[in-house]
From TrEMBL:
Pfam families in UniProt: ABM (PF03992)
Lineage top rank: taxon: Bacteria
Primary gene name: tcmH
Lineage, highest ranks first: Bacteria, Pseudomonadati, Pseudomonadota, Alphaproteobacteria, Rhodobacterales
Name by which UniProt lists this protein: Tetracenomycin-F1 monooxygenase
UniProt-listed Enzyme Commission number(s): 1.13.12.21
Sorted UniProt keywords: Monooxygenase, Oxidoreductase
Length: 106
C-alpha cells in the first residue's frame, strides 16, 4: 500500500490514462497483469495503486519508487517496452509524471 508523506525519500509517479468506457477494463486488466508479473518485481519498486473514474474515461496510477532511476530502468526493460506498446494502443494517451510530496493532511 502506498504511504504518502512529505519529505519521504522516494520518487512518486502519477500516470494518467485517457481511455473510453469500452477500453477501460481491457487497459485495467493489462495494467494489473503488468504490476502482478513485472513491475512489482523490479528493483526499487515500493507500492502502487490503480484508480478509475466513474465514467470510465480515466485511469490514474500512483506508484512509488526508491529512486527516479529505478522507475526509468523499469520503463527501459524489453518486457515493459513491449507492454507499453499494447497499453498505448488501448488508450488515447498516457503520461507518467514524477512528483515530490510537499504536504499531506489527515
Amino acid at each position: 500500500m502506498p504511504k504518502i508523506a512529505a519529505g519521504a525519500e522516494l520518487q512518486t509517479v502519477i500516470t494518467t490514462f485517457d481511455v473510453t468506457p469500452g477500453s477501460c477494463q481491457d487497459l485495467l486488466d493489462h495494467l494489473q497483469d503488468a504490476y502482478e508479473n513485472v513491475i512489482r518485481h523490479q528493483p526499487g519498486f515500493i507500492a502502487a495503486g490503480l484508480h478509475v473514474n466513474d465514467a470510465q474515461t480515466r485511469i490514474a496510477n500512483y506508484s512509488q519508487w526508491r529512486r527516479r532511476e529505478d522507475f526509468q530502468a523499469m520503463l527501459r526493460t524489453e518486457e515493459m517496452r513491449k507492454r507499453n506498446r499494447v497499453i498505448n494502443d488501448l488508450c488515447r494517451s498516457f503520461e507518467p509524471v514524477m512528483y515530490d510530496v510537499m504536504h499531506t493532511y489527515d
